């Protein structure tokens, strides 16, 4: 779970060029104070009503924040997953492991399907999603990202029945 102690690292992570380019986060700028405010506000509310889960991706040995994984747009038995990683976490299998964990969380929450989107240029995200069992659905389409911007993205989905990674 994302906690106040993660706020500084979270805010710093959102300053990364790739996170800004591909993360499509709801806000354009984050400070530790804004992250703490969200943890106590919209994130707590979403966890309470089951509509949003913003979770920390942490290093197992040090507990350092490596990124974030989010379940949002919860509708019936489906939800969308999004994630970003700090540069030091990339290329280590962290995103794939985080997606496997969120599949188990989604199954325990009664969801059946996870959706994901990524822009066609984000080859790393496409590879991670496919390695985590997500299947591409159709051609790129224009839609609205969590930031509110119009983006052309590839759609992926994955069954979470049984919670198997």
From TrEMBL:
Record field: transmembrane: none
Pfam families found in the cross-reference section: Acetyltransf_3 (PF13302)
EC number: 2.-.-.-
Domain N-acetyltransferase residues, every copy: 8-157
Keywords (A to Z) from UniProt: Acyltransferase, Transferase
InterPro entries in alphabetical order: Acyl_CoA_acyltransferase, GNAT_dom, N-acetyltransferase
GO molecular function: transferase activity
Signal sequence range: none
Top-rank EC class of the record's enzyme: transferase
Family as reported in the entry's similarity comment: Belongs to the acetyltransferase family. RimJ subfamily.
UniProt name for this protein: GNAT family protein
């Amino acid at each position: 779970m994302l906690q106040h102690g993660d706020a500084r690292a979270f805010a710093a992570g959102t300053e990364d060029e790739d996170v800004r380019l591909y993360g499509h986060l709801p806000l354009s700028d984050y400070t530790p104070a804004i992250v703490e405010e969200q943890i106590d506000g919209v994130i707590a509310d979403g966890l309470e009503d089951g509509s949003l889960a913003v979770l920390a991706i942490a290093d197992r040995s040090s507990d350092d924040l490596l990124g974030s994984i989010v379940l949002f747009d919860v509708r019936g038995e489906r939800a969308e997953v999004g994630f970003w990683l700090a540069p030091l976490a990339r290329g280590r299998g962290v995103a794939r492991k985080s997606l496997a964990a969120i599949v188990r969380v989604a199954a325990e929450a009664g969801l059946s399907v996870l959706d994901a989107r990524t822009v066609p240029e984000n080859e790393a995200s496409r590879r991670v999603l496919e390695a985590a069992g997500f299947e591409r659905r159709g051609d790129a389409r224009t839609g609205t990202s969590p930031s509110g911007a119009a983006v052309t993205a590839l759609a992926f989905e994955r069954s979470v029945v049984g919670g198997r990674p």
